[in-house]
Every structure is written in structure tokens, then in C-alpha cells.
Design a protein that fits this description.
Layout (H helix, E strand, L loop, with lengths): L2 H4 L7 H5 L14 H19 L11 H23 L2 H21 L12 H12 L10 H22 L3 H28 L19
Length: 214
């Protein structure tokens, strides 16, 4: 018996076709994705502006506090809450990048003694280049997430190349790509934030590749 004969038809709604963010399951825990994405975007945006020498800034150490608390702690907490709501992808991504930002901030803290242990500049650059290679290459079911991690991968590659090859041009290219990455993350975060509202003033599509049929 066909769906029509059964009196029901499975159809894709306009919202599913456009790929809007779906509201998080109703739990006692609010959707933590927006927090993780905004924290990631803000820290990436600030560091990327430093990497392109905005207003002549050559030392990125001011980003340490932001990397510890915003990009680090806030993302780590968002990752833990993603575990609670059952989103393994978000939990893995936010927890990993939160830990990455905390470790990167630790390297920049003078009192850690990490950079002081390298007496040869080229050795430090090689060590940082290898460190920056440890980025996550992940693809999700959203076109927006594919764009985010695609730009992020290229950003890390450019920054790692800038350290390994001692190339300021590659580092600046990584900064420009990082700014683009940050804006993509801001967009996804805003989409998730609006999706969590009962009556949002607007919805932002993410481009879901394979929307589920109800």
C-alpha cells in the first residue's frame, strides 16, 4: 500500500530543503553550540588580525587571556555540554579545540618556560610548525561546517608553513584565511542561536546535505 493510500505522505519541508539549523532537543541543558562557535570565532578572529600585523602589531601575546578563557575554557565547557545533549560531533570538536587554545596560550606565557627552552629561533619555528599541524579535518552534514573546517584546515596549513619555512607571507595568508574562518563560525553560531529560539525573527540556512524526512 502506498503512502497516499495509507493517508500520509512523507515530504521535505521548505526549512529542511534550505538546510536551516534544527532546534536542539528539548532538555534541561540549552544548546551549547552557539557558545562554542562564538568563543572559537572571537579568539580566531583576534589572533588572525595579529597574524596579518593589523596596526603594526607583531606580538600576539595579548591573545593569551582570550585563548585561555574564551577559546579555551568556554569551548571546553561547550564540548562537555555537547556530550550531555548527545552531540558527539560537537563534543569532539569543541573539546579538542578548547584544549588546543589552552595549550597554545600556555606556550605564549613567558612563565611557562616553553619558548625560553629554545635557544635557536629556527628550532622554535620548526616546533611551532609541527604543533600547528595538529588540526582536525572534519566534515559534517552541513555545507557551512564543511566550509568552516575547510578554511580552518587551510589556515593551519598556511600558519604551519609560515613557521616551518620562516615565511612572513605565509603567516599573513594564514591570518587572512583565519579571519574568513572566524566569520564562517560567527554565521553558524548565529544560526544555532536563532534556531534555539521559539520564535526567531529570522533563520539562517546552513545547507544540510541530507535532510531527514519526517
Amino acid at each position: 500500500m502506498s503512502d497516499v493510500e495509507k493517508g500520509s505522505v512523507n515530504a521535505t519541508t521548505p526549512q529542511q530543503a534550505l538546510g536551516y539549523a534544527k532546534p536542539a532537543p528539548r532538555t534541561k541543558i540549552a544548546n551549547p553550540a552557539a557558545l562554542g562557535l562564538f568563543s572559537f570565532a572571537s579568539t580566531t578572529f583576534v589572533l588572525s588580525l595579529y597574524n596579518i600585523s593589523t596596526r603594526g602589531i607583531a606580538h600576539p601575546n595579548v591573545v593569551v587571556g582570550m585563548a585561555i578563557f574564551c577559546g579555551g575554557l568556554a569551548q571546553l565547557l561547550a564540548g562537555m555540554w555537547e556530550f550531555a545533549v548527545g552531540n558527539m560531533f560537537g563534543a569532539s570538536a569543541f573539546t579538542s579545540y578548547g584544549a588546543f587554545w589552552m595549550s597554545y596560550a600556555t606556550i605564549l606565557i613567558p612563565g611557562s618556560g616553553i619558548t625560553a627552552a629554545y635557544t635557536v629561533k629556527s628550532e622554535l619555528q620548526s616546533a611551532l610548525g609541527i604543533f600547528l599541524i595538529c588540526c582536525i579535518v572534519a566534515l559534517g552534514k552541513h555545507i557551512a561546517f564543511i566550509a568552516l573546517f575547510g578554511f580552518l584546515t587551510v589556515t593551519f596549513a598556511a600558519l604551519a608553513g609560515g613557521e616551518l619555512a620562516a615565511s612572513p607571507g605565509s603567516t599573513k595568508a594564514g591570518g587572512v584565511l583565519g579571519v574568513i574562518t572566524a566569520f564562517v563560525a560567527y554565521y553558524i553560531g548565529l544560526s544555532e542561536l536563532l534556531a534555539s529560539e521559539a520564535h526567531p525573527i529570522v533563520r539562517l540556512p546552513l545547507g544540510i546535505l541530507h535532510p531527514k524526512r519526517d
